Amino acid sequence: MKKSFLLGIIAILLINLDARAQYDNNIAIGLKIGEPIGLNVRKYFQYGDKTFDVNIGTYGLLYGQHRKYRDGPYHLKNVNSGKYTASQPAGVMFQGIYSWHRPVGKGDALKVYYGFGGQINYRTYVSEDNLIGTNQNGEKHVSMGPTGNAGVEYNLPGNDLGIFLDAGGFIEIVPDLLFMHPQISAGVRVNLIRGK
User: Fold this and answer.
1) CB proximity list for 42: less than 8 A, separation 6 or greater
2) Which helix (H) or strand (E) holds 10?
3) What's the sign of the alpha-carbon dihedral 46, 47, 50, 55?
4) What single string gives the DSSP state of each residue in 58-106?
5) How many CA atoms, within 13 angstroms, populate the side-chain half-sphere of residue 125?
6) CATH of the domain at 92
7) CB 146 within 8 A of CB 160
C-alpha cells in the first residue's frame, strides 16, 4: 500500500513536471562515485532552477561499515582479533531529492544547489541476539527517513556533459530513530532529452 502510494505520487509529479517543462536539457542521467556509488537520474523543470533527482546505489559501502547500529554492528567482529570483518556487504538505497539551483557568476555553467527528500535502504543487520544465536550472517531489514544534500555542478560549455560534487546526510526514522549517516559523492551527468 505504502509503495503504491509513493510510486503514484512520483508518477503524478513527473507527469506534471513534463507538461510544464520548457528547459533546454530536461532529463539527465549520471553516475555517482563515493557514498553512494550508483545511478542518478535528474528531471529539470522551471528553466533548470529546480530539479527532482532519483538516486539508486550503495548504502554503507564507504561510511558506516564499522559503526554500532541499534544493539549490534552492521559488520561482524572477529572474536579472535577483535577487528571488524567485511563479511556483510553494503546495502542498497533508493533516494528522491527535490532541489533548488542558483547560478554562480555570469552565465549558467556553474551552479550551486541544495535539496531535501526521502531515502529507503535495504541492508544486513547483525544484532547481539544474532551473534549469540545461530544466525551469524544477520538479517535483512529496511530503513527509511529524510535526506538532504548540497552541491556544486559545472556544465561543460558546448556539450551536454556536467560534473558535480555534493554532500549531505540521511537521518533514519524507522527503525532506529535519529541514526545519522553521512553521504558525499562526485560524478558526471549527461543531458539526454531536449525540451520542446
Assistant:
1) 27, 28, 29, 30, 51, 52, 53, 54, 189
2) helix 2-20
3) positive
4) EESSSSSTT-EETTEESSPBPTTT--B-S-SPPEEEEEEEEEEEEE-SS
5) 17
6) 2.40.160.20
7) no
- Single out the residue of 152, 13, 130, 156 nearest to residue 69, CA to CA: 130
Range of the domain at 145: 2-194
Dist CA 147 CA 71 (whole Å): 23
Enter the C-alpha cell of residue 76.
561482524
Checking if the pLDDT of 13 tops 70, the result is: no
Report yes or no: 115 and 98 within 8 Å, Cβ to Cβ.
yes
> Are 53 and 99 contacting, i.e. CB atoms less than 8 angstroms apart?
yes
**Domains: count for the chain:** 1
pLDDT for the residue numbered 20 = 44
**What is the C-alpha to C-alpha distance for residues 165 and 122, in angstroms, rounded to an integer?**
25
> 195 pLDDT band (50/70/90 cuts)?
low
